[in-house]
Amino acid sequence: MSAPEPRLSEKQLEETIGQFTVDESSARSCGLDSAEIERIQQGVRAVAAESAQITAKYNEIAGRTGAEPVKALGAEEVEADRSRLEALMTEDYSFVTPFGHNENRERSISVILSGLVHFDSFGHDGFETTEESLHIHGPGAAVLTSTVKMSGSGETKNLRTGEVHEADFTGTYRTTHTYVFEDSHWRLEASQMTEIPSGGEEAVVAHS
Q: What InterPro entries would the database entry show (predicted)?
């Protein structure tokens, strides 16, 4: 299956997902040589890049047409993109959202393909990675921690009351993504996203 036609320039893509800079301490302790580390870095970044391209595609279509992307693309193309996203994630993928809700692979992909979470743009002044560090834990696992600035909105539903409303997602977030090497491919296994309070970060005081 061919990858989706790129809709982000290389500059936009780098601003959106970052460079996946390898943490030096993890590189020293993982026992891998520089060529293996580079292959891991490129492999996990390729997963993020393809996911970002697909997300941008549906974001652009929903924003331009004001309708569900399936109406503009057709069911066959949408299902092809669904299959590609499934291949980028493990079957048991989980995403802990900024609202504390744990979503599975099916739900996470459906949100992307609906285009209902609307980012103002990708890259600077839209969805932008400002800090990132890739921690490599041997040949089959890597963890990316990032700081992301986001400008966008979308509909949210209160799972207790059922109330649906438009939410502003603009803010700065800490993210963690866990990648594993499975069936000869790098895949995203888990993600977590936490908003940094507008008043600044806080930490629990530790007394010696």
A: NTF2-like_dom_sf (IPR032710)
Q: What is the pLDDT of residues 116-136, one digit of tens each?
A: 888 999 998 899 999 999 999
Residues 6+ apart with CB under 8 A from 127: 16, 119, 121, 148, 149, 150, 151, 152
pLDDT (tens digit per residue) in 6-39: 589 999 999 999 999 999 999 999 999 999 999 9
List the domains of the chain with CATH numbers. 10-195 (3.10.450.50)
CB within 8 A of 174, min separation 6: which ones? Answer: 145, 146, 147, 148, 193, 194, 196
Contact partners, residue 116, CB within 8 Å, separation at least 6: 62, 154, 155
Quick one: tokens of 75?
Answer: 């069911």
Q: Which amino acid is at 147?
A: T
Question: Global pTM?
Answer: 0.90
